[in-house]
Each structure stands twice: as structure tokens, then as C-alpha cells.
């Protein structure tokens, strides 16, 4: 490294993390944009980009070309390195698990699904999903920056315990982060220095879906983002405030599944009745449509397939969809009145509902909420497949985004 580059890098080392996050989230596609966003000199931005490239995190094109019709000096294009490091991401849900490798930019490099019955012992399923991820990692030959786990439960901080795994048969308070880290150690999953074990993180699946959508998907650019979704069972929510994920004082914020939308309705696991959790999830749709859930396919896939194939032709299915849309809209309207978000993203089965009849859903939200009537809140389908997995990858990537040189430069 030349003395000039060393001096520039010393001035710009504090900009390495912000620069990497700008490229990671697609907000700095060129060195000129990076310079402007960081508020540094062109030389410093060049040194920062070169150091990130030397760490194997981004690429800088050698011969920049100006776009057709543009004026001024062409700028070097920046992109995440296609063969760079990855995070091991894992997700557990009531019908099984999925492991993945997630690179910068929220790119899923490889995935491996597994099992249809989640055992009561969390160590068993976490051991399986970690082993599946470790196999993917060995096959890829990629450097691992860490590991993240998404679970269908609030995860208390700082303990890392699953407080309400209602749709799993796990004990309340299961130490999921501790178990996950032990499984990473047993599977010899290496961290960025090449020494096992990789650092493991754990969080609620909808919180992680919101993080992923805000950084890489339909929520990009929102300041106050509300995400609501239903996966295989139950309903969850998450909130991004002022551009940052809001998880509350101990990681338990926005348990939206326990809003009452049908007074005196179905009994809920929480002890109440008519909660969104049991009135607007895949099982509720199948029940309303008069369909018996089958054991061979997940409830989520059964509900999605029913809408895809029979919504347009079967009156009972159409009525069931409208019923769930009305219940969901009622819950969203209450959240809009309290939170006043600038965008709502729907995930899981709720994504399919808004795709089937978004006009009806938006009308219910607007009609039943003060802010909806004064200026309609955009209600959009999520745009990322496996967004909770991408979010789990974000957990593992965050220490690198905070300090690229400190984590990968050794």
C-alpha cells in the first residue's frame, strides 16, 4: 500500500462501514455517488472503495464508462463481490426449517430445506438446520462472517430466549441463541478468521423479514415501515422507526397477532379470543373455505395454492379470501391509527391476499383508520422471497457492516 493511499485510508477508515452499507443496500452504485453520500473527497472515497475491494467485499470496475447521453467524467461502478463472504442463515417454522448462505446485497447464494415435523427439543432441529448450513458452506468454499437464526417467537434481549414459541412445541423461554451457538460449535462452522465457532445471533422471524425488506426490498426508502405477515401459523408484525428496526426495550415490540379482530371468535393460544393470530392465518383461510388441511404440504403452501387455483372460480374460496382481507384490514387500520407508518408491507399469506384483491384491503384500511382517510397509506406486497432468511443473514453481517477492517482485516 502506498504512503498516499495509507494516509487517505487513515482519514477514511471511519467511512469503511458506512461505505460498505451504502453498497450493500444499493444506495451507492458508483464511486461518485459514494463520494457524495459520505461527504468525503474523491480521493478518500477511492481509497475506501479500494480497501473494501481488497477485503473481498466489493468490486470496482477497472474501466468506467459513462451512460449514454450523460455528461462529465465517467465514474467507477461499485457492486458487491459475487464470490465474496457469506453468512449462514437459518429459519425454523412449524413445518420445518430452511438453511441458506446469504451474501452482501441480501443475495441468497444457496438454500437447503428440511423436515416437516419440528421436534419438541429445540436442540434437535437447530442441530439439523446448522448441519444443513454447514454442508452448504463446505460445498461453496466461501468465507463465513457469522450465523443468524429466525424463529417464530419473540426473542428476549439480552438473554436470547424464545418467550412465546406458540406454534412450536418448545418450552417457553427456550434458550435458542445459546443452543444455536452450541450447534455452530459442534458443527465446526468457522467465523471470519477461519476459526470455529462462528458467532450466532437469533431474533424473531417477522422482525428479520422487516429488516430485509427495508434494506433490500419493498420497504427500501421508508422511514416508518410497518410489516405484518403470516407464515405457516399465526400472525406477526414488525416496525422500522426513523430507518431503524424497533424491537422495544427487550426485543418484544409489536406482537400484533394478539389484536382482537373478531370479538368472541376462535380461542387463541394467548388466552383471549378472536385474535388476528387465529383469524387471519393459513389455517383460518382453509377453515373458512371449508377445506381440510392435509399433512403432506405446509399450511402456508396449501392456502397459497388454494388462492392461486380456485379464487377466481370457487365462490366459497373467494368469500373466505374476502373474510380474511376484512379481518386483516381491520387489524391494520388499528395499527395505522397508533403508528402512522408511511408504508405497510405484507408478507407470507398476507402477501398473497394483497395480490389477490389489494383494492379491497386498501379500502378497508382507509375506511377504518383516521390516517388512511386523510391520506392513503401504501399497502404493498413484500418483494423478497425468504425475507426472514435474508434478515437472519443481515444479523450476521451487521458486525462486518459496523467494522469491515476489524472483522475481516486480520
From TrEMBL:
It comes from the Bacteria. InterPro entries: ATPase_NBD, ROK, WH-like_DNA-bd_sf. The lineage of its organism: Bacteria, Bacillati, Actinomycetota, Actinomycetes, Kitasatosporales. It comes from Streptomyces gossypii. Belongs to the ROK (NagC/XylR) family. This is ROK family protein.
Amino acid at each position: 500500500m502506498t504512503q498516499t493511499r495509507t494516509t487517505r485510508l487513515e482519514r477514511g477508515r471511519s467511512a469503511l462501514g458506512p461505505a460498505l452499507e451504502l453498497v450493500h443496500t444499493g444506495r451507492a452504485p458508483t464511486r461518485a455517488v459514494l463520494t457524495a453520500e459520505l461527504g468525503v473527497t474523491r480521493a478518500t472515497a477511492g481509497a475506501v472503495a479500494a480497501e473494501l475491494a481488497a477485503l473481498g467485499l466489493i468490486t470496482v470496475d477497472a474501466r468506467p464508462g459513462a451512460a449514454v447521453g450523460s455528461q462529465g467524467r465517467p465514474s467507477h461502478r461499485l457492486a458487491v463481490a459475487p464470490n465474496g463472504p457469506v453468512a449462514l442463515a437459518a429459519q425454523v417454522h412449524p413445518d420445518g426449517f430452511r438453511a441458506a448462505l446469504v451474501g452482501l446485497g441480501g443475495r441468497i447464494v444457496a438454500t437447503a430445506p428440511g423436515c416437516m415435523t419440528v421436534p419438541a427439543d429445540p436442540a434437535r432441529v437447530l442441530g439439523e438446520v446448522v448441519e444443513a448450513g454447514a454442508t452448504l458452506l463446505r460445498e461453496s468454499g466461501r468465507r463465513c462472517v457469522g450465523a443468524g437464526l429466525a424463529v417464530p417467537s419473540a426473542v428476549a434481549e439480552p438473554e436470547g430466549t424464545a418467550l412465546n414459541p406458540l406454534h412450536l412445541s418448545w418450552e417457553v423461554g427456550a434458550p435458542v441463541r445459546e443452543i444455536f451457538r452450541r450447534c455452530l460449535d459442534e458443527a465446526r462452522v468457522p467465523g471470519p478468521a477461519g476459526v470455529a465457532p462462528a458467532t450466532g445471533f437469533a431474533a424473531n422471524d417477522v422482525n428479520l423479514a422487516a429488516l430485509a425488506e427495508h434494506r433490500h426490498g419493498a420497504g427500501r426508502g421508508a422511514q416508518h415501515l410497518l410489516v405484518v405477515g403470516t407464515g405457516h401459523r399465526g400472525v406477526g408484525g414488525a416496525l422500522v422507526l426513523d430507518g431503524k428496526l424497533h424491537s422495544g426495550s427487550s426485543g418484544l415490540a409489536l406482537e400484533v397477532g394478539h389484536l382482537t379482530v373478531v370479538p368472541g371468535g376462535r380461542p387463541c393460544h394467548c388466552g383471549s379470543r378472536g385474535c388476528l393470530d387465529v383469524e387471519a392465518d393459513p389455517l383460518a383461510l382453509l377453515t373458512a373455505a371449508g377445506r381440510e388441511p392435509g399433512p403432506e404440504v405446509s399450511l402456508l403452501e396449501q392456502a397459497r395454492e388454494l388462492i392461486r387455483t380456485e379464487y377466481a372460480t370457487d365462490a366459497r374460496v373467494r368469500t373466505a379470501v374476502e373474510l380474511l382481507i376484512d379481518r386483516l384490514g381491520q387489524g391494520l387500520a388499528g395499527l395505522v391509527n397508533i403508528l402512522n407508518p408511511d408504508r405497510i408491507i405484507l408478507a407470507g399469506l398476507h402477501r398473497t391476499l394483497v395480490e389477490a384483491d389489494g383494492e379491497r384491503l386498501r379500502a378497508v384500511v382507509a375506511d377504518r383508520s383516521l390516517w388512511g382517510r386523510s391520506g392513503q397509506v401504501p399497502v404493498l406486497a413484500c418483494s423478497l422471497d425468504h425475507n426472514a432468511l435474508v434478515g437472519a443473514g443481515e444479523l450476521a453481517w451487521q458486525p462486518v457492516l459496523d467494522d469491515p477492517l476489524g472483522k475481516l482485516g486480520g
